[in-house]
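Quick one: sequence plus flavin-adenine dinucleotide SMILES, need structure tokens.
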Amino acid sequence: MHLDCDVAVVGAGPAGSRTARDLARAGLRVRLLEEHRAIGVPSHCSGLISLRTLREAEIGEEAVLHRLTGAFVHTQEGGEVALGGSATQAVAIDRVAWDETLCQQAQAAGADLVRARMTRVERENHHVRLTAQTDGRDWTLTARMVVGADGTHSRVARTLGMPRPTEYAYNLGIEGRISPDARARWRDDYVHVFVGHDLAPGWFGWIIPTGEGPDGRGIVRVGIGTTGAVKPIVAYRRMAEAFPELFASLEPIRMYGGTIPLAFAPRSYGDHVLLVGDAAGQVKPFSGGGIYTSLVAARHAAISVREAFERDAFGAKSLVAYERRWKREIGRELSKSRHLRHFGLAMSGAQVERLVRALRSPGLQALTDRHADIDYPSKVLLRLARSLPALATLGAVTLRRPGAALNLVRAHLPI
Ligand SMILES: Cc1cc2nc3c(=O)[nH]c(=O)nc-3n(C[C@H](O)[C@H](O)[C@H](O)COP(=O)(O)OP(=O)(O)OC[C@H]3O[C@@H](n4cnc5c(N)ncnc54)[C@H](O)[C@@H]3O)c2cc1C
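Reply:
Sure thing.
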């Protein structure tokens, strides 16, 4: 039977464009469906990534707006610690340009970009049929396989009845300007992280400096999220009131919302289908960062799809290889981070304060500086947790919430 293409990739975000790029490079006929007219717009992301992510994407320094070398962690009770050094730990990128570049790479490799919203996908005999809409008109597309790279609320996953992630953070993001005075008071190469059960229940707040605007004022990306107990806008007001010295001069330019999955989907494959990126919940549960993980997963998705074509085997039994591959590379880290996050949530406010004070010790500062890695945070967190001052706090947490100890065991801590 004649099919319109080999693979239909739904969503031209990082996950979809990279999958489409790699598949087209392998000689497959790829259609990349994107519902928005402009790639990457509207952006719902703070665009903080590691240097490793630039290499994974095959994108150079041109996407980098600003370099960041550390973080101030602020607690709701007023505690503060500076972590980091002088080496670049992360960079802030122009997220729209980033998505455009990845999509251009896919097109240059031969993928066919189609402006359309996919509304339904059905399995038929040995292929899939997608229904899509362009300018209000329905049309259909047949393919041997579909890759759902259509973000957190994945329609591919939902219409095929695939199980969804069970935990989410709901966020409010603001891009804004700050006065030159305020900018001079901060370290412009440090992000700010705000934690506290009442401030941002289940999640955290942040400020990411992204450089200087044409008028000499600083540009920042600010945000806060919760896991549902409080609306993000309420949490934002609390954060701005609690830290007036940081927020008083903030002048918003643009506001946006966004939902982040904090656990991966129980299954990222099925007959004739793979899920990649946020659609599969492949996001770092400690920070909500998903650009690096979605690119890694997309690399494995393309390898597995190619293999399926070589073997002419598109059933779930064959495509399970994809899940094994991406889990081998990042699954362990994502699970560890998730357990460490849950352990952190079991700490009382006073325990968080004690831990932040302990982190000011020169020994722990050096350890953080040496091992910090935003893509693999469990490396430094587990080392910190094994250090003497932190062990006392950990012991106190497990006494307070015995169930929390299980998270430590699962994260492979020696307790
Ligand atoms: C507030 C916030 C801040 C964040 N900050 C960071 C950060 O600093 N660093 C980081 O690494 N990550 C961050 N993330 C996470 C990051 O944005 C995502 O993990 C990443 O975008 C995942 O890429 P993706 O390709 O899977 O999905 P997306 O980027 O969401 O792309 C999905 C694409 O699919 C398209 N689409 C959806 N449905 C359809 C359909 N039915 N038909 C056709 N097209 C469709 C969408 O238009 C979109 O282009 C943040 C997220 C939020 C919400």
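The pocket of flavin-adenine dinucleotide is lined by residues 10-16, 33-36, 44-49, 117-118, 149-151, 155, 171, 173, 223, 258, 260, 277-279, 283, 288-292, 294 (CB under 6 Å). The mean pLDDT is 93.
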